[in-house]
Structures are given as C-alpha cells and as structure tokens.
Amino acid sequence: KAGVTQTPRYLIKTRGQQVTLSCSPISGHRSVSWYQQTPGQGLQFLFEYFSETQRNKGNFPGRFSGRQFSNSRSEMNVSTLELGDSALYLCASSLEGGGSWGEQFFGPGTRLTVL
Amino acid sequence: SQQGEEDPQALSIQEGENATMNCSYKTSINNLQWYRQNSGRGLVHLILIRSNEREKHSGRLRVTLDTSKKSSSLLITASRAADTASYFCARYPKGGSEKLVFGKGMKLTVNP
C-alpha cells in the first residue's frame, strides 16, 4: 500500500496570505489527523477528521481549519498567515482514529515558511 | 502544553552501545506509543504498549511501562548509526478528548 502523501512538500508564503495543504491517507484509512511541529512548541495536535466530520480539535485559533472529503483525503487551510505559523505540518492517518487509540501513520510533512 | 517529557533531551553514544530513553506523563493513559523522526521528516511508529501491559519487544527495541510511576522507557540495544534520530513518546490519555499527545522528543546521536 502507498503511504500517506502530503502536498506540497515545501511552501513559502508572506504574512497575511492564506495557504491550503493537502493530505492523502493510506487506502482504507478513514481518520486523518493534522499536527504542527515547531522547535519551540514541539508537536501539537491541530484536528482530526473521521468520515468527513471533525471529531477532535486542538487549541489553535480559528485561522486554522480543515476538511475531509468522501475519499478520506483531507485539506487544512491557514488564513491570514503569521510569522509564527512557520512550521512543519504533519498529517497522519489511521484506520479508525482516536476511538481505537491505535498507531498513526505519518506523511513526510509540508514545510511552511512565512516571510 | 505537552504532558510529559522525554529524558534525557539529548543522548550521544557509540555504535554498539545501548540507548535508554525515558518518558514521564501526568494523566492516566489508554496506551503509550514511541515514534522516531529522522531530521525534518515524518514520524515512524515504533511500538505501542497498552496500559495493561508492562513490557513489549520489537527487534532491538524494548519498551517498558510503569503506570504506577506514570513512566515508560525505550531501550535500543546494539545501536547503529542509522538509529540517529529524534524519538518521541506519545500517549492517548484516558478520558477527555481522544487525541495523541506527544512529548517534546529526545535527540539520539549514534557515532560510528
């Protein structure tokens, strides 16, 4: 099976712009979670989608949003970018998600740089 | 904020030596997982240990869990240069929202 794929791998934006990141989970996985990784804060949970519904949400402002499509692919959007949004954004998929508390399979990440 | 931390934050050893990393946490868990991350890349799942398990092995990896002390350890035996990476423990807390909570990670350097 193909692994989790994320596009694009690298992105450079300027403050105030918006960005959309994409994640394709492993075939058959219905849960997609998003994480932000920065040197200062480490790995922080953004949100989880399961069957097109947001099931869990982390402590991030409303500028961060996401959605999941019927084929389980997910996108996350960040509006009005700030310098502090520069980070590695990781997507992870799992069969059932939080309810089964199982392992998550991570994509390679999208490195976002905000100038 | 992160619940729990890996200890030590950085470890440098010679190839062939064993590496032990510790993880502490504050709240009850459903399970605890260890992940590895090579520089700037995605995380790779290593091992999952459930709250009712005390020890688990996978190849050169051994994980222990002590729920009374709210701590876990990851032992890598006969380390190799390829084991150089950051290692994270992550926990599914019992109760509350069902999200995986990561520690800040520990950088392991294995010198050839």
Q: How would you describe this structure to a colleague?
A:
The complex is a heterodimer of chains A (115) and B (112). By secondary structure, chain A is an all-beta fold. Chain A has strands at 5-7, 10-13, 19-24, 31-38, 42-50, 53-57, 64-68, 74-78, 87-94, 105-106, 110-114. In chain A, strand 5 (42-50) and strand 6 (53-57) form a beta hairpin. Chain B is mainly β. Chain B contains no helices and eleven strands. Chain B has strands spanning 5-7, 10-14, 19-24, 29-37, 43-50, 55-58, 61-66, 71-76, 85-93, 101-102, 106-111. In chain B, the strands form two sheets. In chain B, strands 2, 4, 5, 9, 10 and 11 form a six-stranded mixed beta sheet that branches. The chains are: A mainly beta (115), B mainly beta (112). The interface between A and B is medium-sized, with 28 and 24 residues.
Annotate the secondary structure layout.
The complex is a heterodimer of chains A (115) and B (112).
Chain A: E1 5-7, E2 10-13, E3 19-24, E4 31-38, E5 42-50, E6 53-57, E7 64-68, E8 74-78, E9 87-94, E10 105-106, E11 110-114
Chain B: E1 5-7, E2 10-14, E3 19-24, E4 29-37, E5 43-50, E6 55-58, E7 61-66, E8 71-76, E9 85-93, E10 101-102, E11 106-111
Parallel strand pairs in B: 2-11
Antiparallel strand pairs in B: 1-3, 3-8, 4-5, 4-9, 6-7, 7-8, 9-10, 9-11
Summary of the model, kept short:
With 115 residues, chain A is an all-beta fold.
Strand content of chain A: over 45%
The helix-and-strand class of chain A reads: mainly beta
* Unreliable spans of chain A: none
Order of helices and strands of chain A: EEEEEEEEEEE
Average pLDDT of chain B works out at 90
| Cα gyration radius of chain B (Å) | 13 Å
SS elements, strand count of chain B:
11
> What characterizes the major β-sheet of chain A?
7 strands, mixed
Helices of chain B, by number, come to 0
Alpha carbon gyration radius of chain A: 13 Å
Low-confidence regions of chain B: none
**Most extensive interface, residues per chain?**
A-B, 28 and 24 residues
Tell the overall outline of chain A.
Answer: globular
- Fraction of residues of chain A in helices? under 10%
User: What's the rounded overall pLDDT mean of chain A?
Assistant: 92
| Termini gap of chain B | 36 Å
